TrEMBL record:
InterPro entries: PIG-V/Gpi18 (IPR007315). Keywords: Endoplasmic reticulum, Glycosyltransferase, GPI-anchor biosynthesis, Membrane, Transferase, Transmembrane, Transmembrane helix. GO terms for molecular function: alpha-1,6-mannosyltransferase activity; GPI mannosyltransferase activity. This is Mannosyltransferase PIG-V. It is found in: Endoplasmic reticulum membrane. The chain crosses the membrane at residues 23-48, 119-139, 151-172, 192-225, 237-259, 279-300, 307-326, 338-361, 381-401. Pfam families: Mannosyl_trans2. It is a multi-pass membrane protein. One of its GO terms (biological process) is GPI anchor biosynthetic process.
């Protein structure tokens, strides 16, 4: 009798939490549970972390959370950006703070001043706040195109995803994802004028302006193409085109700011290229060339033919675009698929594939809405367990520092 009463109470509580009008309660509960899991994994690795370039042995959580690029944000929050580009012995631009955009460290610095707390503590709190906000907006996005329960499981996938540890460390990803989700939500609702402030901040948080401009441009073309059955009033067309142009401008804003401060028009791109120089040497930025340049490096590393990796790249790209035409993908609607296409093209055009690429793929979060569609309880449980296992794997390979580490997150 007691067991039945307990089971009944659990069912009533679950029904109350999952009620559509209290969706935010369910999202917060999912987010909190995911952070318990992820924090436990990070603490486990912190407890065995040897001394490294950023911390001593067995650092506390906050120190462990500000390693890797978190240290660059720490430098920016305290000292800003260099007016003169650092150069190596050969005269090439070296790695420096201009690779990291200013909004996240500026917000962290503001709260450091207000609270007098240490950078690492404030950075983690800011990241967690934006991560929770992202989860809430993500549910609203998914519920716009998917049933409530499916949208909620999309949030589960997002919160427990293999790289979700990045949402609670001193990185700008959680803030960037929140802004991107908000922008996509306004796009789906066709509130074009609401996009302007979001684009302005988003484009100076992580590189995203040009990818979002492409998505907006494709959205305008699509709406014009189907105007006969869906309508495209002039006022909406003006707003959508204006937002597209603004996103293009903001996509180049950081490059122009870096050029104005340092006196070098190529300051930002030279800085970004410095990160790939250890792999392929100093090369020019040629759109869509980096993945095939990387094929040469990784082919030599893995001792496989370069042509094989090049074929796999082409097959993977074609397979991905073909996948977006399948029925589960079509349930996401046109706008989210246009974003996935646009961001994939952007990644192919400008990024060099290495261990950080997994983190750079996080803006493709709408794919969680596809993975969430099967309703089998067994499938969903196994998927969540696979995500948690993926967290262990990614933190071990990408975050934890073991002597010389060639796999930065």
């Amino acid at each position: 009798m007691a067991d039945r009463s307990l089971a009944s109470a659990v069912r009533r509580a679950t029904t109350a939490v999952l009620a559509p009008e209290r969706w935010w309660v369910a999202v917060i509960a999912i987010f909190a549970a995911s952070r318990v899991v992820t924090t436990s994994i990070l603490l486990a690795y912190a407890s065995i972390q040897p001394a490294n370039s950023w911390t001593g042995p067995r650092p506390d959580y906050f120190s462990f959370a500000k390693i890797w690029d978190g240290h660059w944000y720490y430098i920016i929050a305290l000292t800003g950006y260099p007016t003169e580009l650092p150069r190596d012995d050969a005269g090439y631009v070296a790695e420096n703070a201009w690779a990291f955009m200013p909004v996240y460290p500026a917000i962290v610095r503001f709260f450091m001043t207000v609270t007098t707390l240490d950078f690492a503590v404030v950075a983690v709190i800011v990241s967690l706040g934006f991560a929770l906000a992202a989860a809430l907006v993500f549910y609203r996005m998914m519920n716009h195109v998917l049933p409530a329960r499916t949208a909620l499981f999309s949030v589960v996938i997002f919160c427990f995803a293999p790289l979700s540890a990045i949402l609670q460390v001193a990185y700008a990803e959680s803030m960037s994802l929140f802004l991107l989700m908000l922008a996509l939500y306004w796009l789906m609702k066709r509130h074009y004028w609401m996009l302007f402030p979001v684009i302005a901040v988003m484009s100076l948080t992580r590189p995203s302006g040009l990818a979002f401009a492409l998505a907006l441009g494709l959205h305008v073309v699509y709406r014009w193409w189907v105007r006969g059955r869906d309508g495209f009033p002039r006022r909406e067309a003006v707003a959508a085109v204006s937002a597209t142009v603004f996103s293009v401008v903001m996509g180049f804003a950081w490059l122009l700011i870096a050029a104005a401060v340092t006196g070098s028009l190529s300051a930002y791109t030279d800085t970004e290229l410095a990160w790939r120089a250890p792999y392929i040497g100093h090369v020019e930025l040629v759109p869509f060339a980096a993945w095939f340049q990387a094929a040469g490096f990784w082919a030599a590393w893995w001792n496989v033919p370069q042509w094989l990796l090049s074929v796999l790249i082409v097959a993977g790209v074609l397979g991905f675009f073909g996948f977006l035409l399948t029925r589960p993908a079509r349930r996401l609607g046109v706008d989210l698929r246009l974003w996935l296409v646009s961001y994939a093209l952007y990644i192919l055009a400008v990024f060099f594939p290495q261990s950080s690429t997994f983190r750079l793929l996080m803006p493709m979060f709408p794919l969680a809405g596809i993975l969430a569609q099967p309703k089998s309880p067994r499938y969903r449980i196994l998927l969540v367990l696979a995500c948690i296992a993926g967290q262990w794997g990614w933190i071990h390979i990408g975050w934890w520092v073991d002597n010389y580490d060639w796999s930065p997150p």
